Structure to design on (736 residues):
């Protein structure tokens, strides 16, 4: 009883003193980046919304056209193709990099001799610039390149085609290098998540006679929920902004067959010089990213509550 | 760590000082430039800045030499900024619309220059043209904007044609074709010998296909129709345009099937290695050719299809235009005057490796049979065109890339392709 009486007055003073000591630095750390971001990020983003309601060639002043750009988008076959390709990209690139990254993390989680080498080998592609990655894969795909030589060696020469120039294969030929890179990244995220799981949980499950599959299903996966949220956000954002690898390998071609929303936005803005229309595409990309991520977060929070 | 920190701080300090220095220098320079622009002292005392997209090593060296020569003459001073051509292309509108723009720019004659001129962004260089009386009328017309004043000063032009190796044609026992029928027969002969007759490189450079469209259109429908089409005054789904593709389809079986997967540079390698028979390309492709192969190269003009149509050739013209907001119009015009002189053009041709023809008719071109043949072909032509994007706009080029590569893949869908092309072209013209 005496103890509670003596402690009550102490806590508020300590709290007050701590906040008073931290505030100037903390405020600076928040406000300075915020000011910089406002000028370089938030303001241009808001301007983007405004430009999406205009017709603008980048030189003359923009003219206000209302929702014309969005009406045109609704009837634009190339845009629909790019949207479909972006969905394919999200499912294939996103899905396979989660599966591949998680699988690799499971295989490489236990400390064994030489496991560091394999982890490093899988992570190496992340380090390379995507433009360099594209150069390497272009050599791989070129006529009579490594891919064709491999197919010939195993007697599948009837499959040989101009991988990046064939509209049937261009999109998938571009997804592969992107995956090759992303899997290492996702693997590292999952490795960190797996390390954070309390070994006692696995111990207990093993004592109860759970098989390794049951432990994976009922212990490991539920424990990774926090990592999943991070991985999902990263994947969705990376899919929607995937641009460099596609641009450096195919530029969205041949004839828009590997076009993503991001490459279509870029070529509309800087090749066709239709900046208003390109801004409308940018707004669509933004809304899509926001919808997917908010949708997931809302669900995740509801489950936790 | 403690060793590292002060070092880093010192480094940052230097960086900051250097930054201040740069700022100081640039404001000093702009002060010079603006003082030169003062109403009383507009006599060209400030340095003229020239933005150049000629970034290949030989062309860059050639430009540096010209600027050094100009500075040595004492009629003014100029400084050269060489910028990667893709950056240059996207930055050009920003340069021209900025408050304190560079003075002079390398660029192409054609619709992009005219477009800037119509927005009053280009300097009237009619004064310079007064001393260019011996330049051909075709170049004067090309450099004149819609209001009748000259806005462009040509430096040189080059030509497009079917290039081949003389030794290979001799080995295969074939001759240059003159007409479309002879051309198709030549293709058939090469194909029967197991050589893909027509090389092309669409992988990274799909615009190369536009040369085929340009040439077929000017051979079948004539240059005036071609220009109107590219200016949006004719329709791409017109039956006259479809006729172009009907002809093109006759040649489609003879294209190198690998050509759609690699860029024109690799198509050049394939031609030089004898893996393709011939290649419709501009002379710039020879920049990448080894010196010993240059002597073995020859070309023939795009075959005649309809003898009634006046012969036109693609002769893209490169040169300069200046910003209307230049702080030093006198100095800029003095530099333009020098760049259009016989001396400067001969120095450029000598220093650059490309096979180009000087714009000044009194300047001597490089002394080689290939260049003489190219010059004769252009002199002989009734009309000159530039190239698809120079006769239309960079914004229209992607619509051609899409339509033409699709046609080469799916010639059956030509009607749908032309309808799509018309739709996307309308969007570009509308803005």
């Amino acid at each position: 009883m005496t103890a509670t009486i003596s402690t009550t007055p102490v806590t508020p003073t300590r709290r007050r003193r701590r906040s008073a000591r931290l505030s100037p630095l903390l405020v600076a750390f928040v406000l300075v980046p915020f000011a910089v971001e406002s000028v370089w990020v938030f303001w241009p983003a808001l301007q983007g919304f405004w430009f999406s309601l205009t017709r603008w060639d980048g030189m003359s002043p923009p003219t206000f056209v209302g929702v014309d750009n969005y009406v045109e988008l609704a009837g634009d076959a190339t845009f629909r193709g790019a949207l479909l390709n972006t969905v394919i990209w999200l499912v294939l690139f996103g899905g396979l990099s989660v599966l591949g990254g998680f699988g690799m993390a499971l295989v490489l989680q236990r400390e064994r001799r030489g496991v560091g080498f394999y982890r490093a080998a899988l992570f190496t592609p992340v380090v390379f610039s995507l433009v360099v990655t594209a150069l390497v894969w272009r050599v791989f795909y070129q006529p009579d390149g490594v891919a064709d030589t491999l197919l010939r060696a195993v007697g599948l020469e009837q499959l040989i085609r101009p991988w990046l120039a064939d509209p049937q294969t261009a999109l998938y030929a571009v997804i592969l290098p992107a995956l090759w890179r992303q899997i290492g990244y996702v693997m590292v995220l999952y490795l960190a998540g797996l390390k954070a799981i309390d070994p006692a949980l696995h111990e207990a499950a093993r004592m109860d006679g759970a098989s390794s599959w049951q432990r994976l299903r009922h212990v490991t996966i539920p424990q990774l929920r926090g990592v999943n949220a991070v991985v999902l956000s990263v994947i969705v954002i990376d899919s929607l902004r995937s641009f460099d690898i596609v641009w450096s390998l195919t530029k969205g071609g041949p004839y828009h067959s590997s076009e993503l929303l991001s490459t279509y936005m870029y070529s509309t803005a800087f090749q066709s010089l239709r900046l208003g229309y390109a801004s409308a595409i940018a707004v669509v990309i933004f809304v899509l990213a926001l919808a997917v991520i908010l949708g997931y977060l809302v669900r995740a929070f509801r489950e936790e509550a | 760590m403690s060793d590292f920190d002060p070092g880093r701080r010192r480094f940052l300090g230097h960086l900051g000082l250097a930054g201040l220095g740069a700022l100081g220098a640039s404001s000093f320079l702009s002060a010079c430039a603006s003082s030169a622009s003062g109403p009383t002292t507009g006599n060209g005392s400030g340095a003229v800045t020239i933005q150049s997209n000629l970034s290949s090593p030989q062309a860059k060296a050639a430009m540096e030499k010209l600027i050094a020569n100009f500075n040595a003459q004492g009629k003014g001073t100029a400084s050269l900024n060489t910028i990667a051509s893709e950056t240059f292309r996207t930055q050009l509108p920003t340069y021209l619309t900025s408050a304190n723009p560079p003075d002079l720019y390398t660029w192409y004659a054609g619709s992009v220059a005219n477009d800037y001129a119509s927005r009053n962004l280009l300097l009237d260089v009619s004064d310079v043209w007064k001393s260019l009386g011996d330049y051909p009328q075709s170049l004067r017309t090309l450099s004149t904007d819609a209001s009748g004043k000259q806005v462009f000063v040509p430096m040189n032009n080059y030509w497009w044609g079917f290039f081949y190796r003389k030794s290979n044609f001799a080995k295969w026992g074939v001759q240059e074709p003159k007409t479309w029928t002879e051309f198709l027969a030549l293709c058939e002969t090469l194909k029967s010998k197991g050589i893909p007759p027509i090389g092309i490189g669409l992988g990274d450079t799909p615009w190369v296909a536009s040369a085929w469209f340009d040439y077929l259109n000017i051979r079948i429908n004539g240059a005036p129709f071609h220009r109107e089409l590219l200016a949006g005054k004719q329709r791409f789904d017109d039956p006259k345009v479809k006729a172009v593709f009907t002809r093109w389809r006759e040649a489609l079986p003879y294209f190198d099937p690998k050509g759609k997967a690699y860029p024109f540079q690799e198509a050049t390698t394939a031609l030089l290695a004898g893996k393709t028979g011939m290649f419709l390309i501009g002379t710039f492709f020879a920049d990448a050719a080894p010196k010993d192969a240059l002597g073995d190269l020859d070309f023939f003009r795009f075959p005649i299809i309809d003898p009634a149509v006046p012969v036109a050739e693609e002769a893209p013209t490169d040169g300069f235009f200046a910003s209307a907001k230049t702080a030093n119009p006198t100095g800029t015009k003095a530099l333009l005057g020098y760049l259009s002189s016989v001396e400067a053009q001969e120095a450029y041709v000598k220093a650059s490796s490309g096979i180009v023809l000087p714009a000044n008719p009194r300047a001597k071109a490089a002394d080689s049979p290939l260049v003489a043949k190219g010059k004769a072909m252009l002199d002989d032509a009734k009309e000159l065109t530039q190239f698809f994007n120079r006769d239309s706009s960079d914004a229209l080029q992607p619509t051609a890339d899409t339509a033409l590569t699709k046609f080469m893949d799916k010639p059956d869908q030509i009607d749908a392709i032309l309808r799509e092309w018309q739709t996307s072209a309308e969007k570009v013209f509308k803005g």
Observations:
- Chain B touches chain A at residues 90, 93, 96-97, 119, 202-204, 206, 257-258, 260-262, 394-395, 397-398, 401-403, 405-406, 409, 420, 424, 427-428, 431 (CB under 8 Å).
- Confidence is low (pLDDT under 50) at residues 1-44 of chain B.
- Residues 304 and 314 of chain B are 14 Å apart (CA to CA).
- The longest strand of chain B covers residues 160-165.
